[in-house]
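Issue: copy button drops trailing tokens. Both records pasted manually instead:
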Amino acid sequence: MLNQRAGLFAVGIAMATPGLAALGAFAAFGYLDPALAAGAGVAVLAASLIVCRQPVRDRDRALEILESVEKPTGVSAPKAGELERAALTATGALRNLQTRHDTLLAAAQHTENLIERLPAPLIVTDAGRNVTLANRAARRLSESGPKPDSEFNASPTSMKGRDLATAIRHPVLLDGVDRARTTGDGATVDITLPVPVERTYAVHIEPFETGADEAAIVLYFQERTAIERGAQTHRDFIANVSHELRTPLTSLAGFIETLRGTARDDPKAAETFLPIMQAQTDRMTRLISGLLSLSRIELEEHTRPSDAIALGPLLRSIRDTLQLKAMERGIRLLIDVEDDAPPVLGERDQLIQVFQNLFDNAVKYGGEGGAVTASATFDDDSASISVTDEGDGVPPEAIPRLTERFYRVDPARSRELGGAGLGLAIVKHIVNRHRGKLSIQSAPGQGSTFTVTLPLANFSNPDN
């Protein structure tokens, strides 16, 4: 009898093992509450042992317990002994659990893939501020992995388990996370991270509870770099315009006060001051005219010109306009472009403004007694027109800023020569509207070359 009971107990344990293993896996992966899993395990084990005992009434009760685990549709027990029926019922229940497990795993993998591919950084931490999840974009923010795509090899687990403070060392961010942990309230903080290039983010910090009733915090990074740069550009623009207008207005106010006061009846003072006042007035006129030109160009920047423009006649008309000014500085204006050169796609008035600005700058800064040359090269779909001077050149570090509004390499010299600091900014915007490209080559003591590349008029798709 003792051996029989031991055998029945062993059979019961063997029957219960698959179910207990499945329930344990669910609890380990967080898909089932541990207490619920333990209770279900006891029920499965009890049912398995009861099945192996007499009387039949107890076995039938055990089978009812197993069947309550939710037998899959389409599975029916054959008319056989109770042991076979119990095994089939348990197998069906386990298959159903396995199907649910596979479905949950697939859904979790799908969600993980979506989070991993989000362009915005996303980080989840536990209540202790340890990282439990960080997508690819977030791993780029970590001080251990700010690299280009070709060199970025940080694995999905490279931040997992680390304290957030060791991954992203920013006091404002960490303070926001700590406040959320303490108060349970969400918050948004603005931070600027210096690596790999300076970027500004609005970080949304939101506490939440996981399925196991444990606290966690999600951090979503919304990049605001372009917005902040635009705001800074606007502030710089206002400051620059104010500065550019303040100087001539102050000068004019001073001269007017003098002529109305102590120099009221002094012809020599009037003869001295009036030309200066005229020059300052002209300077403000050029500044306002340039700003209005920029405004008009920006309004039209997304509309591509469609006229065919002959380069040779256009460049020669600009040369004739500036010939007298060039002769005053002993500078020769040379055009090395044939009249029958392939036409480019553009708007005539704006292209005149582009090359007139380039010629005018070359005459101003090209050095007396030299030459300014315009030449062109052509390929299948574009023309590259270069304006070259023989002046002092530009330091390499200044070249990227030459097209900024109001930027001057030598502010004092530029103002002395009547420059408003807008000429190359206008050139850049017009070239952009023409779907072209502006490139600058210069070195101290070697002159400068400004090259404008434009689509040819017979090119079918200049937007490419």
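Record 2 (pasted manually too):
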Amino acid sequence: MIGMLVGGMFLFGLVILLPLLLVGLILRLLFHILLIPFKIVGVLIGLGVGLAGLAAVVAVLAGGLVLASALLIGAALLLPLTPLLLGALVVWGVFRLMKPRPVAAPPA
């Protein structure tokens, strides 16, 4: 009795469930095969965006490095010239104070 029950379940699985499982497997395989080009395009777009971001980061870092080195060189060159610049500023201020101001003409 139990053997017939097991045999019936086996036949049900063999005749009904196995073809359904095979059809589901084939449909799933076809679905994945149809989506492969879109996956490839997605990977290529992601790679392009990633490389563009990497290039932007490298450009910003290089620009920052150039700017920092230019500021450092400028500060190193201007530091010894600071007393001369202050003296020139004092002389310019004195000459500016000595220069006569134009007097506005009275309105007619």
